[in-house]
Queue: 3 jobs
Job 1
Amino acid sequence: MAKKKVENLSFEESLHELDSIVQNLEQGELSLESSMALFERGLKLSQVSQSKLQNAEQKIKILLDKNGQAELSDFALSSNDSQDVL
C-alpha cells in the first residue's frame, strides 16, 4: 500500500504514523537505509504537524480578536500534570 503524502494526512493521522515510526526505529531491526527513510519521513511529519498547530493557533487568535475576547496565554501545567507528561 502506498503511503499518503505527508501534506495530505490529517493531524491525527500524522501523529499516529509518527508514533509508529518511533516504535520501528527504537526496535533497531531495520537496515540503515530503511531507518534513514523512516527518519526523514518522521521529520517531515513533525514539521507539517507543527505547521498545522501554528495555523490552528493563528485561526483561534483571529477568531478571539474578532469577538473581542481575551488573548491566548500559555498553557501552564500543574505539578501533578507535569509528572504525567514525562
Job 2
Amino acid sequence: MAKDGTARGGARIGSGKKPTNKKKVEVLTTTFDDMSDFITPDEIEGVEVPPIKDYLKAKQKNGKDLYAQDIFKTTYLWLEKRGCETLVGNQLIEQYAMSVSRWIQCEEAISEFGMLAKHPTTGNAIASPYVSMSQAYMKQVNQIWYQIYSIIQDNGSAEIDELDPQDLMMEKLLRARK
C-alpha cells in the first residue's frame, strides 16, 4: 500500500524467488578406434607467409608502389616469431598494412607538396588536406595495432630473449605504471 492509501505497486519484476529449471545435459563421447575415417592430404605444403591479396600490391595513381605488401609480410613474420600468427586474423593484418601504407603515402605527399595548399575558390593559403588525412590514418593504424598487440600480450609465447629491444622498452614502460 502506498503512503496515500491507494493499493498500487506490487511485486517488482525480477524480485523474489526464481524457479530452478535445471535441464539435464547429456555428454556424447566418441572414441576413434579406426583412424581410417580421417582424410589425410596427399602432400603437405608449408607456407612461410600466406598469399597476399592483389589490392595490397596494386600500383597507385601516382605510379609508385604501395608498401602494403612489404608491411603485411613484415607484420606476419613478426607475429610468427611470437607464435601468434594463427591468433591474429589475416584481415586484421591486411587492414593494418593498408592503413600504414596509406599513411606513408600521405606523408610522401606532404613532403612533395608541402604543408600548405591553395583554397579552390578564394585562392588563399589553407592547411594541406594530406595533413588531416595523415592524422586520420595514423589514428587508424594505432587502433588496429592496439588490437593486434593485445592479442600478442594475452597469448604470446615468445621468451624474453627473443623480444626486440623496442618490445622490451615498451614492457618496461607499461610495467612502470603499476
Job 3
Amino acid sequence: MTVSAIQSVLQQLRATAQAAGGADSAADAVAGGSFADEMKKSLARVSNAQQNALGQAQNFELGKPGVALNDVMVDLQKANIGFQMSLQVRNKLVAAYQEIMNIPA
C-alpha cells in the first residue's frame, strides 16, 4: 500500500468518525428522542453499511470500473465494526436486564 492510499483511508476514517459523532447526533440528543428510536436508527445505519459493502464487493467481483479493492475492504471493515458494536450493545442490554431481574423485590 502506498503512502497516498494510506492517507486516503485515514481521511475516510476521519470523515466517518466526524459524521458519526457530528451535529446530527447532537441534534437528535437535544430533540429528546427515545432510546428505542436511537437503537432503530443505529441498526438501520448498520444495515445500510452492510448492504453498501456487499454491493461494492459484488461490483468488484463483476469487474465493474471504478471499484477498487481497497475501497471494498474498507467498506467491509466499516460494516463489520458497526455490526460488532451493535452486538456488544445488545450483550450489555441483556446483561443489564438480567441484573435488574435478579434484584430482590
